[in-house]
User: What shape does this take?
Amino acid sequence: NPIAPSADEDRVRIAENYLTSLYGLPKQGSSGTERRSNALSLRLKEMQQFFGLAITGTLDEETIKVMKKPRCGVPDVAA
Amino acid sequence: YSTFAGDYKWKKHDLTYRIENYTPDMSEAEVDDSIKRALQLWADVTPLRFTRIYSGTADIMISFVVGDHRDGYPFDGPNGFLAHAFPPFEGIGGDAHFDDDEAFFYRSPQGYNLFLVAAHEFGHSLGLEHSQDPGALMYPTYVYRDVDTYALSQDDVSGIQSLYGPNTDV
Assistant: This one.
């Protein structure tokens, strides 16, 4: 049987999809793990700033909660 | 409020719209009414006027689509992204796409109210970006509101009037 993704993997997948679609995070490619992590953190901060969340650059509960809300698919580039 | 960077606004006040297809979630009359009222929200506070056409290319082409509908912004199945629209420019500009994997409703607070989603998308069709004001229609996440008494927030009105000015008929 396939192994179910862990909760952490699921959160990262949600965040990556969200930030790729709406905040210009490059799709997973050849960039190194560290560079990818920095890019993710930077986009997370932009997203957190837009929604008035604590700007931590990390995937906290409040951030994930906002990402899971139904929304318009136009990118938030105002921030 | 926020507007798209660049000169994204219609250079005319008389705009056309066309409903290309319908969602099976609602009757055609309910879709027609939802779309008409959503556009009227913006017409009430600006000099913009909307006329429906039934063939040819309208300024605002409205369609219900699913998944990858070949505009570079695929939908993602139920929930998540509900719809999107393009700012004013020639071609696909102004067009609004609704994710038909969602359950759209006419008056019920369950599912997603088409009038509210459409009104938000038409804000983009006219040149408004997402607002950071949680009370604004142009806030990016969906919130159900009483559609019988719904009115644009001051943030939305200020945004659209920064592009087109006020409605001089009232």
Summary: DSSP finds three helices and one strand in chain A.
